[in-house]
Amino acid sequence: MSVVSLCDGLFMFDFLKRGSAPSQKQIEKLVKRLTEPGGENAPRIEAAEKLAEWSTPESLYALLKRFTISSNVITQDIEEKRMVVRILVEKGNDAVEPILRFLSSHHNVEWPVQALSEILPHQELVPKLVEILEKVAAASDFTPPEHKADLIRAMRGHVTPEIANVLRQFLTDDDDDVRISAIEAISEAGEQVREPLLEAFLAANDRPRIRIRIAEMLADREWPVKGFRPKIEETLPEGFHLTAKGFVRRK
Into how many domains does the chain fold? Predict the structure, then answer.
C-alpha cells in the first residue's frame, strides 16, 4: 500500500469517527458540565454547543437537561436557557421528539414548551400538548406533584378547549398546588369552564386555598354563580360576597 493510500484511509477513518453518533459515555460527560451550576458559564455553553452539533435524538434530549438547573448568576442562567431554546428551535422537527420525551419525565418544562411552541404550528402543537397532559394525568398517582404543577403552568398562553378538557382532570388532584395551577390555566378557556370551576369550589370543602383561588378567579373574570348561588353563598371564603346579580366581589 502506498503512503498516499494509507493517508487517504486514515483521513477517511477520522472523518467517519468524527461524524459518527456519540457514545452514551460522551453524552453523560457533557451533561455533567452542562448541569454544573457554579463557576464560569463557558464550559456549560461549550457543552451545549457540542451536544447540539452532534444533533442526535439522545444528544438533543441531553441538551434539554440544561433546564433542570439554575446557575448561580441569574442573568447568565436566563441567557443560557434562551440560547438553548434558540438551538432547539433551529433544529426544528429533529428536536420535537426529544422535547416531548423530556416533558413526560421532567418538571422543568416552561422553556421546553416555549421551544416546542416556536417549532410547531398551533394546529400541531395543541395535540402534542394534549397527549403529554393525558399521559401525565393517566399516571397521576405516580407523578410528583411538582412535575404536574410545572407542566400545567407551562400550558398558560396555549390553553384551548381541548387542553382545558384535559386540565379538568387535575381539579381534583390531591395536591393543592396542582389544583391551583389547573384552576389558573383552565380559566384561559373562557366562561365555558365556569361550571367546572364552581363544581371544584364546592368539592373543596376542606381546601381553603382552593376556594379562595376560585373565588378570586370568579371575581376577576366577572363570571356569575348562576345555578350554584345558594351553595356558593353559604360557603364563600371570608373577604368575598355575592352581589344581587350573582357576581363574586371582594369586600
Answer: 1
